[in-house]
Design brief:
The chain is mainly alpha-helical. Helices cover about 45% and strands about 5% of the residues. The N terminus and C terminus are likely disordered. It is found in: Secreted.
Amino acid sequence: MAVSSKGIISVVTTRVLLAVFLLQSVCDFKLPTVQADLEVGYYENTGLCSGAEDVVAAVVLAAFVADPTVTASLIRLQFHDCFVQGCDASIMENGTFTERTSPPDLTVRGYNVIDAAKAALEEFCPGSVSCADIITIAARDSIAILGGPTFPVLTGRLDGFPRGPDSPDPSDFLPGPNFTIPQATAAFALKGLSQADMVNLLGAHTVGVAQCRFFVDRLYNFLGTGQPDPDLDPTYGDYLRKICPDTTNSTSLDTNVALDFKSEFKWDLSYFTNVKHRRGLLRIDDELGTNNATSPHFTQIGSSNLLFNKEFIDSLTKMSQIGVITDPALGNIREVCEIAIAPETISMPFQLEEEVLEAHSAF
């Protein structure tokens, strides 16, 4: 369900109530060391758009009220954006050769929420807030709405220029649901993230859903054996086969199933408990809890809300800095998130252009 800009602006007037809501979290956290030119409170500190984060939070809350499944989708959207070309809103671009039209991103949702937040911000402070930052802020607010912690995020990103036919293929970077631990570890390492970061970030499977197509092989023909995955709890397997009764029918394969059995709308530790009891939905979930390389850390963070939240936030903050653009020679701020702006189409006064170039040459 789309969120209208007019509805968003009216919600922004409830900033005090929203602030109280977001403070209902497990605890408050401080960020690890800041990198690049990003900073906490960038839009407040620079005066570019005071209240920008409140506007995004209001949009996300309104979207959640309309559709409770969208918050988990926004968390996933950030992951998919950062893992390909970096956190540059490239996933928002629409058209030929774009990320969102590639197979790994066909099930990504939440674009309309980012678009609504951008539309509201263009009315509030035109040309000031990047789509890349909106994605980061929206993911943070989604976690808080689902009962997780609220925490400061780094902002100051620019949006990427248009993708071309030679741009990276998302399939080459995004880890799949049937990845083994070594395969997933390698995919995260390519982005400068450790195996511990991988375990922490996959803890986001405590919320959200996955389509039957991504795990149906575990129910009927695991690794070509013609049998169910022996590591899957039999009772849980029977439950899943009732939801996903067919391996070929498209309607069945498109059915959504909770990643965290009976707790897909709550940020909690039940995901870790379910995996411990062999009720991890995806193969990668199951392996996190059984592989000798990952199970000690998985068990450790799964024993404490405080520790899980701290570890997750640290790793999410690292992920949110992958390939960020802060140099105006390499990126810009889009007016509409799905339309990336080529540098040659940007018009600016000659004097301002000279100032930008002089500032860039100083580095």
